[in-house]
Amino acid sequence: MADSNYAFVAFLAKFEAAGSVPATDKKGRALTAAGDATVTSDGGAITGAYLTLDGTGDYVTTPGTADLQLGSGDFCVDFSIKTTANNKCLLDYYDGTTTGWQVFLTSSGYLAWWNNSAVKTGAIAVNDGNRHHVAIVRRSGSIYLYIDGVLDGAGVANTTNHNTTKSVVAIGAQVISRNASYDLAGSFDFVRITIGVSRWAAAFTPPTLADLAQTADVSASDGVQYGTSTSGTGAYRAQCIEFSVLDSAFAASYHWRMVEQIGIGGVLGATKRGDGAISSTIGLASALLSRSILNGRASDAMMVADTASSNLVFKVSAIDGVRLYEAELVSGNVDDALDVWIANVATSAHSRYAQYGFNSFATFEGKQYGCKSDGVYELGGDLDGANPVKWTVTFAEQDFGASNMKRFESVYVGAKAAGQLVLKVINGDGTAYHYNVIPSGNEGRTSRALVGRGLSGRYWLLELASDTERAELDSIDFAFAVMSRRI
Fold this sequence. Notes:
Number of helices: 0
Oligomer: single chain
Radius of gyration: 33 Å
Helix content: under 10%
């Protein structure tokens, strides 16, 4: 995806790695930490970490320069914040004159944009301890506030020309005209200043990490080396987000067409999408942590190592004896991913066995055998290994020959079972109801499920199931009342 307005970005601080505050932002501007300002890991941040400030002398600054002047046209200042504080300074480029500016958190936890006074104050609180994306947008001479992509009140006319340079831009405190009582206790995962475009003109989805990145299209050929041990030879066109050099531990997104070989190093963590013709070999190293989607034609060999931790989806035609039109393999035992359908040629009845693993069957000297990837097994017994066999019988959806609405009263089941059976009733709107099948009378094969009062519909789908008990099913009969209403 990447940022289509990246050329207009004047400042972009992304706090991605736990530890010290990074030395520069993504545009090369120096960052200086004050107090105990640090970066801590947090999965709730889109960058994976937060700049964390404790509210006592903690903040980050970058020197003010002429190219940080917002001017008199469109701009956008956006960031994400997590805090429970109020009456604090979030961003500071303010020296008491109208040419400076400040983003402030009011005593009610609302956002405020200042040019020597509050130009625009919002009405959506952002100090509930959750992460919020905040955007201050000037578009066509008016200031707008957005919280998590939602417009916070009407726009306010503002054409101030921010045409002077201040000493610093500060994150988390009022620094230029220092006032420590406004120091923020809270967290940021990124701060971005965009000059010359407003970015948004209506409600929007808050940016992801990829939406903050630069996109560069490059053409490379012949001797290309990624990392310390993987090299490739060939001509291709690649799109790299934010980086042009791939280290052995680098995580990135690629879009390319490559021939001959794709090799992924043992410690690489990556997300890849390959479109086009991929030939020869696709090999995934044993320690690979990766997600891949391959669309196209793969030939010769596809292999996932025994210890690979990987999610793969192949939509391919594979040559040399096996043809896969669409298959999904999630790391683990391949036999567990197989569903087997068995049909009775005399009655046309069919059954599905989930996680069964057998791909073919044979009868030899009166015994049944099944073939799996690891050998031949004799079939028999009441258990699946050490566990009872779970089963479900699904009856065809029907309206019992009447277009009227019908109200179910009872379902009679002729079955021999050692324990509890459950009847699942699904009416025409898709709502499912579950009822125990209760033995009735002295006949062990006669059971009855009492359906809930008021349950009505035209079409009905019924399922009989048990997670624990073996059963022999002889019959199923339905008792229902036809209503006067027609559909």
